Amino acid sequence: MLYVIAALVVVLGLVPLGVTLQRTLRKAARLKSTAARAQADIADRRGLIRARIAALGVALAQRRRIGSEHGVAGTAAEVEGRHR
User: Fold this and answer.
1) d(CA 16, CA 12)
2) How far apart are the C-alpha atoms of 48 and 55, rounded to whole Å?
3) Cα separations in angstroms, 55 against 23, 36, 41, 51, 65
4) Using CA atoms, how far apart are residues 72 and 78, in angstroms rounded to an integer?
5) CA within 13 Å, CB half, 44
6) Which terminal Cβ of the chain has fewer Cβ within 10 Å, N or C?
7) What are the helix (H) ranges across the chain?
């Protein structure tokens, strides 16, 4: 008769353990999903920042090129005596 009580105690102990394990696994899956979404969002933002930096570099290069062309053109105009 004592073994029946011991088996009952073991079963009653395993039920809450199973419920707790199930909840933990669900929350772990939800956390993994959220982390994946956050990582994808960060990667998207990083890509946008890289694109903006590249566009800024192109714009600055164009500005330098235009500035150097105006500097050469201004010098040539001064040599010829014309003003633009």
Assistant:
1) 7
2) 10
3) 48, 29, 21, 6, 15
4) 10
5) 6
6) N
7) 2-80
**Per-residue pLDDT tens for 18-59?**
999 999 999 999 999 999 999 999 999 999 999 999 999 999
Distances (CA, A) of 35 to 25, 31, 39: 15, 6, 6
**Rounded-to-integer distance, Cα 78 and Cα 18, Å:** 89
What's the rounded Cα separation, in Å, for the pair 45 and 75? Answer: 45
Asked if 50 contacts 44 with a C-beta cutoff of 8 angstroms, the reply is no
CA distance 34 to 72: 57
Structure tokens at 21: 């394990």
How much is the mean pLDDT over the chain?
A: 87
